[in-house]
Amino acid sequence: MKINKTATALLAFLAINLILAGNGLSASGESKKDAIQKSLAEASTELQKQAGTEPVVLIGSSLILAPLWSVDVADGAFFKDCMQHHTSSHLAKLIDRPVVSLATAGQFVSDTYLITEKLLNEKHHPSVLIYGVAPRDFMDDTTGGLAMTSVFDSLVETKDFPKIDKLFFNNFDERGDFVLNRSVFLYRKRGRYQAKVQDFAAKAEDKILGQLPKGKDNEAKVASKTANQDPLANFLLGGDRDAVWKQSIEEYAKRYKRFNAKQFEKQKECFRALTALCAERNIKLYVVAMPLTNDNRKLMPDGLYQQYISFVKDATTEAAVPFLDLQNSNLYDESNFYDTVHLNSKGGQRFLSTISGLVKEEHSLATGKSTAKTY
Question: How much is the pTM?
Answer without folding.
Answer: 0.80
